[in-house]
Amino acid sequence: MARLQIEAPGMLHQAYQQFADHVTRKVQATPRGVCPVDLTLNALRMSHVESCGKCTPCRIGLAQLAELIEEVLDGAGEEDSIKKIEQLANVIRDTADCAIGYEAANLVINSLKFFREDYERHIVKADCLYTMDNAIPCAAICPAHVDVPGYIALTRAGRCEDAVRLIRRDNPFPAVCGYVCEHPCEDHCRRAMVDAPINICGIKRYAVDHAGDIPTPQCAADTGKRIAVVGGGPGGLTAAYFSRLMGHSVTVYEQRKKLGGMLRYGIPDYRLPQDILDKDIQYILDTGIDVKMDVNVGEDVTIEELKKEYDAVYVSIGAHDDKKLCIEGEDGKGVLSAVAMLRAVGEGDRMDLTGKHVVVIGGGNVAMDATRTSLRLGADSVTTVYRRRIADMTALPVEIEEAQAEGAHIITLHAPDHIELDEKGEVAALWAQPQIISSVTADGRTSVRAADAELVRIPCDVIVVAIGQAINAGHLEPGGIETERGVIKADLSTFVPDSGNVFAGGDAVSGPATVIRAIAAGKVAARNIDEFLGFDHRITVDVDIPAPDLSNKPACGRVTLKGRHISHIAGDFDLVDEGMSDQEMEQECGRCLRCDHFGLGIFKGGRIREW
Amino acid sequence: MVNIRINGTPYTVEDGMTIMEAAYEAGVDIPHLCYLKDVNEIGACRLCCVEVEGENKLIPACDNVVTEDMSIITNSPRVRQASRTNLELIMSRHDGTCTTCVRSGNCQLQNLCIDFSLDVDLYEKHYAPEKKLQWKRDFPLIRDNNKCVKCMRCVQICDKVQSMKIWDTLGTGSHTRVGVFDGRSIHHTDCTLCGQCITHCPVGALRARDDTDRVIEAISDPDIVTVFQIAPAIRTAWGEPFGLIPRHATVNRLCGCLKQMGADYVFDTSFTADLTIMEEANEFLVRLEKGDLEKYPMFTSCCPGWIRFIKKQFPELVPQLSTSKSPQQMFGAVMKSYFAEKIGVDPSKIFTVSIMPCVAKKGECDMDSMKSAMGANDVDVVLTTREVTRLLKKEHIPAARVADQPFDQLMAEYSGAGVIFGTTGGVMEAALRTAYFKFMGENPPADLFEEVNGFSPREKYPWVEKEFELKGQKLRIAVVNTLGHARAVCEAILREEVKYDFVEVMACPGGCSGGGGQPINTEDEERAFSRGIYLHELDKEMELRFSHENREVAKLYEDYLGHPLSERAEELLHVEHSLEFNY
Question: Across all residues in chain B, what is the average pLDDT?
Fold first, then answer.
């Protein structure tokens, strides 16, 4: 045999890799509510398997640690069990020779930090604080709790209208969400245990694209109560829609000329065409909602006046202000905020960037929107500058990929230092400080620090700042609405404490977040305003859900949406992604594991038929 | 209709049937443990998994519906192995010491093990640790987690039928167990003690507290006079464990058994059911007259599960309860006063035992407000139907060979109206017969109010509602059984969506004949309704159909109480309902 041989990955290597992939997917799809002590115990045991057996703390210590935790889990723990676990874990962390040992100990130390109360509960009451009461992971995680398996089954059965009606029971923006939802529902999809999460968002888009006309639902008998909604974005319109269905009379106050808020003025047309948005809005308005456009609450009418005139007020203003870089040269000509730019484009004012070199600063979805919009406005080049790495960007991966595919350059690990202006006060270049990726902070984010390197000059004519948004709620304070760190203080029911009859939710309370969070807040607000007004209306829909297949299809890839071919990007604001074909929809829907029927779903925590 | 094949044989069955139901219709048995029709069809035990042609996995028969051309195999080696293995797995977490188990002989798990000829324990046994078993044995309802098979029936019956949600799953993974919601102690819940979780438990994980030893002790004490009463619903079911049909297991045969065992006096609670009607019907007329019932109706108060329910769930309606005690408690009070006096025995030497189809009665008899006669319990011990059969077996009484015995003097007579107290609608029907007499001065045809019985078709609501007119006075009544429906009727009343004058509530499905203390069968047959029908048959066969015609009740008034609602009657037979909630 030759003294050196090429080491080709053998069967064993492949089997390990496949096994590791399987375990990773399973861990990722772990349902919420499983016992953290049990989870820790089993993760610890898995770590112990990795031990080579050389060192005492890892070989024996991890086994003893597992025994101690198992005692707690079995209800046989003693008063000092936690102390014993902690002590042993600390010693293993301090004395294990390699990461296999000390990271296993860290797992336990962290678990004790996060779930101490549960360990105590096991010891005192032989019980667990947690229980699996969310049988349908997608519906449980969706902030608006849309019945996902239900509408997937309906779409598959060709009943797209029923699918959309079912979605509207919890979310009156089915079309918008079919196009631009961040789909947290896919994060814990149980199908990931088999192969990959279902493309839930794509299926929803198929349903709305293929649904015919749906009659406006019946509203409950008029209650004689009047509600004012401040801000005609997704959250405000959701609250308006459900309140109207509950029989209240609703007036929406909108400061701009059209409804939709950030959906219209923040999200570009190539992602969400305005006619799609208009479809959802029209359906909402058809229930009989009064709208007052072009009214600036705080100036044209005060909150005090609204509070007096209406029985309840819902404040759902968006995050339309921008955050500043606070660097030299920021006031130069050619420095724009992303919100202002996207708003102008949304209003139809497509500025001409022909021949310009554009730099976009930021790494979130808004930065990607600004980047891709700049390309469409004719810019010669668009460079996105970000302090960290691509993996650290908060933008959805697909947005980043598409921006790059459309011709944007992304420069990572460069922090803006100052803006160079020419003699006319116009932008000449961005100077950036190269960064080095650094330690991981307690919340799991990777930080950066300045690298030992010279400043870099990035020549450009236009700089678009997309480093975050803010809300402007200062003008509401005279109305008795308290703000804290720039957002309105409201409790989890959306009620604004000590305000009498004001509720608030969405970006106005949480700070800039997602469409579906704003919708969820609107839904919660509608429910609680109804109760505040002395009613107990229930929202439901009479749609029966098709029975599932008896058993599941074997592992199969996830369908993703394909981008359209774009030959000339300048001026092309048309929709980029193509929806699923019938064939793709059929296959993708067939992958749904129907957690509403299989597993816990048939017993408890399953389908919620009304709220 | 749907065409299917089971084990190769074609059948045509109804649309929408589960595989389990279709197989049953076809005469094919599919083993099952957790399945309880309409209440628990969740495929938890996985004993009912069958092969369906074209499917890669085995399919549970209980929660999947047949479809056209479905071909089902229930007897392949794969199916047999699957059921057997799952049964072995269940047994590895089940305390299988059957000889000391209260359910030995009528345990579904035991039956399955016999059917499968399970011999060795293939898997290592592992029980829940001691700490988790702590359950105060003085509580009338007892849970043993090492016998629990996690079928979830108790969770479902308590949630779906009784709307109380006392039970829940706790923990996850291998440590999942069924217990009181939130991990609470059962004492800190609104448990009504209806006992439906017990009668729907397939194994011995849930049982009622056993008080038979206290009865044996009393019988054995020569200084103590034991006085028994037997509730109307007992005659529908007590013979089941002895293999006797109701026609043979008569209430007088049970009387004979108790006498043979050494009971000094035995009575039928139907006697005080008649007495209850005298008090309650008169109370109703007085309250109706007074305008007490203008907003909310008067509710019956015979059912202690309902009483516990209303106190915790609808305290605002408690003033609407009839102040008349339940027949059990009236009997207890009368035994230790009137009867004691008549037989010349010091009440402190009288030990009263009632045989009830009910677990909640164990709570009722221990309430402070039920100690009217002399500060001690009016009823000393309550035995469920299951306990009395256990007691007879303990005492080696060969029930099938014991002759009928008449009830004892003074309180032996009872009417058919008293007998139907043991079924839903019976109290209302009995009360209406007497109310009619009060209004009209003459008896109605005895079956005039038959349609109020709980079996009548429901129209708008899941309860029976009727309207009668007696001499221009409109009477609106409702009859409801199960606590889920009781909740619905209370909510409708509070919303003022419905308006009644008198409402009868029984906590258990079908009323007392389906009570939580009744014998349990392993076939999961809901027998409450056939038992109820039997009570109506007995009523029809009787000459005495009206409570107000009970001569011994009349004599009790004449000799002792005076008249209904008299001061003495109020003292002994009525109660001010507080929010008292024992156990």
Answer: 94
